[in-house]
């Protein structure tokens, strides 16, 4: 896919609020990132207020009703990019079938933030500490990007190319996020660790989705997918950990094995919120807690038959 | 395909603030990138809304947009076309939350109070009889450095017990332990 030459023939408007996706994509084609796409504004406006950057020219996506949707299908839910976290947390199908997403949406700041913040913004803002991306990684979400050239769908696990860089081209907009329902019996775990229990930016967060087979004591990992926040320059899947755990009896997985795999997956750093050493050790603990919770659920399922 | 976008600046913009119509046509709304907070305080004379952090962390600037709680420091007015904005000045004088806050001693310095009352109003619209946990979660984005929160929670539960819609008389709900 080639990047279009964004030689704008006229300067971008200071504020453009299209009423249709087609108009938004046309503006994107003409001005690219010279127009900053905004929806809930809950992170970008913090920058304006701090006076760190001049106020940019804005492509305001908040009038696009076609992006503010939740469409449950037989195998997956498709969420429009500008659906709010409050709308996601309150949706009955998401609460029932994708409970980790309901939980992460509900932990994205306060009520006032959740009412405005959008799932698409949380992805495109590309913060490594964002609250919803770990869950999207664990569930195996796919993103649909659109431009005047057409639409394409890509796996979310490949989307973040580097700190604040993504695979989205300058003329593309994220239009929707499709999240497959986990298979029956898959066990989810989501935990955000911050300075306080609520409304703190993560020191580290983990979402895990674990599939097992076999009875309580001998349950074996059939598949495990992870998503970490604040454990590297981007939201991180943990493919080495997934490989290391595949086929292992749940009861036999110890901290050493998890730590060894995570050494390849994570690249945490020291910053104002935490240290690399703390993040590495809590990452291991969170994975062990996720596996412990899977063991409990398997045992409970065996008990209740 | 070329953009239909006008390369000219100001889009036509109008919305309602506390029942009054504001419009870019008559100059009562400035640039679309202006924070709603600044429009309220600097241009519309509605200084009940306070600026605390300016980063969406403290809730002092919270107002209602179409009944939903938002932090006005993070809302550009360009997104408000056709909306209904309510700041603390737009709350009916007989809203039971106001008397409940006064009765419970839920305000001290008062900076958080307008946002706190509107967060409580939004909560009671979603959940007329909230549990203490729901009250705590509903107000969790509103920081208070004076009260320690207990009297605020008492006030909200008290207003809820009184059937907290404007026009009803607040009654005595069991308060929290001091």
Describe this structure as you would to a colleague.
- The complex is a heterodimer of chains A (305) and B (178).
- Chain A is an alpha+beta fold.
- Chain A folds into three domains: 15-60; 65-180, Uridine Diphospho-n-acetylenolpyruvylglucosamine Reductase, domain 3 (2-Layer Sandwich), CATH 3.30.465; 187-304, 2-Layer Sandwich (Enolase-like, domain 1), CATH 3.30.390.50.
- Chain A contains eleven helices and 14 strands.
- Chain A has helices at 21-31, 44-49, 85-89, 92-97, 99-106, 111-114, 119-124, 133-139, 239-245, 255-265, 276-304, and strands spanning 15-16, 35-38, 57-60, 70-72, 76-80, 142-147, 150-155, 160-162, 165-166, 173-180, 187-193, 204-213, 220-229, 236-237.
- In chain A, the strands form four sheets. A five-stranded antiparallel sheet of chain A has the order 4-5-10-6-7.
- In chain A, strand 8 and strand 9 form a beta hairpin.
- In chain A, helix 9 (239-245) runs antiparallel to helix 10 (255-265) and helix 10 packs across helix 11.
- Chain B is built from five helices and five strands, in the order E-E-H-E-E-E-H-H-H-H.
- In chain B, strand 1 (14-17) and strand 2 form a beta hairpin.
- Chain B starts with 13 loop residues before the first strand and ends in a 17-residue tail after the last helix.
- Chain B has two domains: 14-90, Beta-grasp domain (Ubiquitin-like (UB roll), Roll), CATH 3.10.20.30; 96-161, [2Fe-2S]-binding domain (DNA polymerase, domain 1, Orthogonal Bundle).
- Residues 1-9 and 167-178 of chain B have low confidence and may be disordered.
- Chain B has 178 residues and is α+β, with helices and mostly antiparallel strands.
- Chain B has a five-stranded mixed sheet, with helices on one face.
- In chain B, helix 2 (96-104) packs across helix 5 (150-161).
- At the A-B interface, strand 1, helix 1, helix 2 and helix 6 of A face strand 4 and helix 3 of B.
């Amino acid at each position: 896919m080639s990047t279009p030459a964004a030689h704008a023939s006229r300067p971008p408007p200071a504020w453009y609020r299209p009423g249709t996706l087609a108009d938004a994509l046309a503006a994107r084609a003409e001005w690219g990132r010279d127009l900053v796409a905004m929806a809930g504004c809950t992170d970008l406006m913090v920058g304006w207020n701090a006076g760190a950057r001049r106020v940019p020219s804005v492509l305001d996506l908040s009038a696009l009703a076609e992006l503010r949707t939740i469409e449950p299908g037989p195998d997956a839910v498709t969420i429009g990019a500008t659906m709010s976290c409050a709308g996601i947390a309150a949706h009955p199908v998401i609460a029932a079938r994708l409970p980790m997403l309901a939980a992460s949406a509900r932990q994205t700041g306060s009520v006032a933030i959740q009412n405005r913040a959008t799932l698409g913004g949380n992805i495109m803002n590309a913060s490594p500490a964002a609250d919803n991306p770990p869950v999207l990684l664990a569930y195996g979400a796919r993103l649909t990007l659109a431009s005047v050239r057409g639409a394409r769908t890509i796996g979310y696990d490949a989307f973040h190319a580097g700190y604040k860089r993504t695979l989205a081209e300058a003329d593309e907009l994220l239009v929707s996020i499709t999240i497959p329902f986990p298979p029956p019996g898959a066990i989810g775990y989501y935990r955000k660790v911050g300075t306080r229990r609520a409304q703190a930016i993560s020191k580290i967060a983990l979402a895990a989705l674990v599939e097992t087979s076999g009875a309580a004591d001998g349950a074996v990992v059939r598949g495990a997918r992870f998503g970490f926040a604040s454990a590297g320059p981007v939201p991180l899947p943990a493919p080495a950990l997934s490989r290391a755990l595949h086929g292992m009896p749940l009861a036999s997985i110890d901290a050493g094995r998890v730590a060894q795999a995570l050494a390849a997956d994570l690249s945490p750093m020291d910053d104002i919120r935490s240290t690399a050493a703390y993040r590495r050790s809590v990452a291991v603990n969170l994975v062990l807690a996720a596996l412990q919770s899977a063991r409990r659920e398997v045992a409970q399922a065996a008990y209740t038959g | 395909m070329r953009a239909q976008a006008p390369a000219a600046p100001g889009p036509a913009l109008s919305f309602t603030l506390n029942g009054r119509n504001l419009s870019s046509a008559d100059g009562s709304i400035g640039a679309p990138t202006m924070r709603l907070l600044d429009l309220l305080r600097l241009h519309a004379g509605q200084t009940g809304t306070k600026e605390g952090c300016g980063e969406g962390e403290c809730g002092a600037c919270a107002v209602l947009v179409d009944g939903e709680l938002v932090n006005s420091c993070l809302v550009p007015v360009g997104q408000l076309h056709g909306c209904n904005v309510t700041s603390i000045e737009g709350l009916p004088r007989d809203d039971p939350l106001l008397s409940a806050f006064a009765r419970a001693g839920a305000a001290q310095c008062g900076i958080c109070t307008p946002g706190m009352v509107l967060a409580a109003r939004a909560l009671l619209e979603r959940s007329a009889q909230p549990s203490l946990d729901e009250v705590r979660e509903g107000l969790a984005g509103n920081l208070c450095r004076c009260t320690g929160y207990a009297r605020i929670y008492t006030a909200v539960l008290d207003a809820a017990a009184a059937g907290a819609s404007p026009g009803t008389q607040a009654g005595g709900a069991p308060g929290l332990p001091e």
